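User: I want to check something. If I give you two sequences, will you return the structure for each one separately, not as a complex?

Assistant: Yes, each is folded on its own. Here is the first sequence with its structure:
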Amino acid sequence: MKRFTQVVCAAWLLAGCASGGSVGIGGVGIGGGGGSSGVGVGLSFPVGGSTSTADSGQADCDGDVYRVQPRYPEQAAAQNYSGRVTVSFNVKLNGRAADYEAAGDKPFFDETKRAVMRSCWPAGVRQNLVASYQNGKTAIWVENSLSGTP
C-alpha cells in the first residue's frame, strides 16, 4: 500500500508540474474519533518558477517601459478602412494595464487592446492614448489632445 501511495503522489506532483499550477506537499493529517473530520497541515508552492503574472497572463514588466505598436487588422486593411480608437486605462504597480476603456471605430478595438495589454507602462500612471489606423497601412499611437500624453 505504501508503494502505491508513493506512485500516486509522484504522478500527482508531475501532473501539477506539467500544468504549471501549485502543488501541495506535506499533507500531515490529525484526525480524531469516528468521524472524517480533522485538521490538515501542508505546504504549497508554485512549480516552474516564481514569475508572477498580471490579470492578462503577461509577466510583470520589472521596470521596463515600452509600447507595442498595434497591427492593422487584415480585414480593415483589405478594405482600405481607416479609423481611430481612444483608450484610457490605469497602470498597476507591475507596469501592466488595468481598467481598460475604449471608444472609437470598432473594427480596431481588439488589436488596440492587444497592443495595450502587451505593452509595459510607467507604473501607477493613468494613460490616455489614441491608436490611429490610416489608409489600410499604418497603425500608430498618436498624442491624445485631452491628456497631453504622447
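And separately, the second sequence with its own structure:
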Amino acid sequence: MNTPARPSLWRYFILCLTKNYATFSGTASRREFWGFYLFLFIFSFVFGMAGGVIFALGLPWGELSGMQDPEQVQTIISSHMAPFILIVQIVTMVFYLPIWGVTIRRLRDAGFSTAWGYGYIALAVISIINWAVLDRFQYEGGSITQFLGVLSSAYWLLLIILACFPSRPAEENTPE
C-alpha cells in the first residue's frame, strides 16, 4: 500500500497564495485552512514586530524628549507612522482574497453554506466604515465604534468555530 503523502502546512500556505489565490470554488481541508492561517499569523507577528522596531528607530527621539506639548508629539509621531500604515494596508489588501477564498472553501468542505463566508465582506465594510468615516471626522468613538468592534469580533469567532467542524463526505451523484 503506497499512500500519497499529504502536503506540509507550508505547502498549503504557498498554494493558497499562488494556485488558489482567488479561488472560491472547491473545498479546503482543515489542514489547508489552519496551515494557511498558521503561517499568516507567524508572518504577521514577525513583520509586525520588525515594523514596530523600524518605526521606533526612525523616530526623532532627541526632538521628542524636549517637547512638552502632547499635540506636537502626536503630530510628529503621526507623520512618521503614515508610511508604516500605508505598507500595512497594501499587505492587507494582498492577503484579503486568499483569506476569503480559503475561508469560503473551508466552510463548503465542512458542509456549511458559503453565505457564512460572504459575511467576511461585511467585516471589510464595517472596518472601512469605521476607518474612513468615523475616524476621519474625528469622531471620538463611543458606542458605535465599540458595537462595530464587538460585531466583527463575534463574527470572526463564529467563522473559526465553523471552520473547526470536520469535512463532510462528498455526496454521490446517483439517481434515485
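Because they were folded independently, the notes below concern the second chain alone. The chain has a mean pLDDT of 82. The helical segments are 9-17, 30-58, 61-65, 70-109, 115-135, 143-163.
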